[in-house]
Amino acid sequence: DAGVTQTPRHEVAEKGQTIILKCEPVSGHNDLFWYRQTKIQGLELLSYFRSKSLMEDGGAFKDRFKAEMLNSSFSTLKIQPTEPKDSAVYLCASSVLGGSSQNTLYFGAGTRLSVL
Amino acid sequence: GDSVTQTEGQVALSEEDFLTIHCNYSASGYPTLFWYVQYPGEGPQLLFRASRDKEKGSSRGFEATYDKGTTSFHLRKASVQESDSAVYYCALTPPRIFFGDGTQLVVKP
């Protein structure tokens, strides 16, 4: 089975640019999460979808971060406009609802974003 | 509110040393507890999980026992290898997943 796929693996942006990160969850999974990972803050939840409906978006990230789930097999995270402090690894994860693996997150390899 | 506390930010050991990474949690009821491991350049992956008091989770020589009395889920391994060098996260759910701050394990040959 294919795992969670994130593209691109690396992204370099100029301050003020708009960037879009992409995620394909594990087929059949109902929940999708976007996290930001930094050494200082660790894993921070940006957005959480269940069956394509937005269940939670991290309050501190609302103004410039927008996650969408266009269909059950594809999600995007848009950052507009980017700032140098957005430099981090962005992780997408999915999980299945029900069964023995409920609530277990399957992560992609992440997108490393550098904002100059 | 629900939370997870990992005491050690970084642990440095030599091969064949005994490992303990402490994890304490705060939650009502019986949360499910997890250990995830993250290798460089990869996302976190599940090491194992436990859902009931006194349940032991284990994988790849690592183990942890769910202890509701002390609200703990400490990770242990009897003899670490250089290949175990990674970041380890303790986590709990529900209502949604809460991660600890992570512990960087460095194992020297």
What attributes characterize this protein structure?
heterodimer; A: 116 residues; mainly beta; four-stranded antiparallel sheet; globular; B: 109 residues; six-stranded mixed sheet; 0% helix
A few lines on this structure:
The complex is a heterodimer of chains A (116) and B (109). In chain A, 0% of the residues lie in helices and 54% in strands.
Structural description of this entry:
The complex is a heterodimer of chains A (116) and B (109). By secondary structure, chain A is an all-beta fold. Chain A has strands spanning 5-7, 10-13, 19-24, 31-38, 42-50, 53-57, 65-71, 74-79, 88-95, 106-107, 111-115. In chain A, strands 2, 4, 5, 6, 9, 10 and 11 form a 7-stranded mixed sheet that branches. Chain A has a 4-stranded antiparallel sheet with strand order 1-3-8-7, with no helix packed on it. The mean pLDDT of chain A is 92. Chain B has 109 residues and is mainly β. Chain B is 0% helix and 51% strand. Chain B contains no helices and 12 strands. Chain B has strands spanning 3-6, 10-14, 19-21, 23-26, 32-38, 45-50, 56-59, 62-65, 75-77, 86-93, 98-99, 103-108. In chain B, the strands form 3 sheets. In chain B, strands 2, 5, 6, 10, 11 and 12 form a 6-stranded mixed sheet that branches. Chain B is globular and about 40 Å long. The termini of chain B are far apart. The model of chain B has no long low-confidence stretch (mean pLDDT 95). Chain A binds chain B through residues 4, 33, 42-43, 45, 48, 56, 91, 93, 103-110, and chain B through 32, 34, 36, 41-46, 49, 89, 93-94, 96-97, 99-102.
